[in-house]
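<goal> How does this chain fold?
<sample>
Here is the protein in question

***
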Amino acid sequence: MGVWLEENRLIVHNGDLTGRVIAVNADNWERNQLRRVIEKGESILNVQFELSFKDELIENCYDSVYIVQEACRKVCLDNNIEGTQQSLSKLAKEIDATDVVDSVVNDQSARYRSFIRAFRDGFQDTELEMYKWLLFPILSADTDDLEGGLIYADIRKQIQNHHPRGKDLNPGNLTQALQSTASLQVDKGIKPIILDYDQTNRRLSIVDRGFLIWLDNQQEEDLLEYASLDAVVK
């Protein structure tokens, strides 16, 4: 099992798997599938969410099954429902689903801010601070662009345009930092990992969809401040 977004990444790492594995994108959920997730939970718990709540939740969940499940769980816990009900309980009649989604996303803020700070610091203090600068193209990009990953050429261009070394920055330092992206997160105890660099396709990807959703709900100025990049960029 792998967490990479590229379909053939496992085969790249182990050619013996060619023709023996099937790629399944666990992040790809259609709206009718998300609705079935809710309905399955309703059946198990003997509850019924207001139809308008379900529609609004699916509309605003960023196509994330995690958001859907957590939002429904919050509503259940707010109504003291922790197991199957003896009689049908109707829920979320006057609840704004977007408020619940915002709450779910904000619950992850501490974890993601901690990731930014830990990744920023790298393995040790260095003059170039490459890991901090690797965060710049990520934190300043549109989430739509991040979904497909950032290619090496774009990362290099953005960093050289803002790094104190500018065009004199050695590309080898950038490549080395990119290749150590996963090992740094393991070293820092970040589980599951959030960033992964595909050396074959030279692409940096976000493998934690929740992080994408969180980024989409943050101000760029705040994100750059978390990474200690605000003063440099200004």
